[in-house]
Amino acid sequence: MGKIRWSKTAQQNLEEVADYIAQDSPFYAINFVERILQDTEKLSNFPKIGRIVPEFKKETIRELIFHNYRIVYKMEKDCVFIVSICHGSVDILRKATSEYWEIN
């Protein structure tokens, strides 16, 4: 497939999660971010490894589950676009309407 691109929203989400974890352990915050980046890099070769997001029911909107977090992405012609990272307990439909997710 090719490139991995991150939305500003997803970048901000990742920073917020890292900041939260860093309150207890800067080491684990760095480790957490590195592992998320490693998991998302796999999408460049295998974009369909994530499941279709049940709330959206669109083939092109998928997610990876990483610990308690959902990494939501959109498959496009030549890239995978990371849209958001959110805790699994969050209402994803409400989050999608309260943040700019750049999903068409």
List keywords for this structure.
104 residues, alpha+beta, YaeB-like fold, five-stranded mixed beta sheet, 3 helices, 5 strands, 37% helix
Summary?
37% of the residues lie in helices and 27% in strands. With 104 residues, it is of the alpha+beta class.
Q: How would you portray this structure in words?
A:
- With 104 residues, the protein is α+β, with helices and mostly antiparallel strands.
- It has one domain (3-98): RelE-like (YaeB-like fold, 2-Layer Sandwich), CATH 3.30.2310.20.
- Helix content is 37%, strand content 27%.
- It is built from 3 helices and 5 strands.
- The protein has helices spanning 8-22, 26-41, 92-98; strands at 3-6, 51-52, 61-66, 69-75, 79-87.
- It has a 5-stranded mixed sheet.
- β4 and β5 form a beta hairpin.
- α1 packs antiparallel against α2.
- The longest helix is centred in the first third of the chain and has 16 residues, at 26-41.
- The chain is globular.
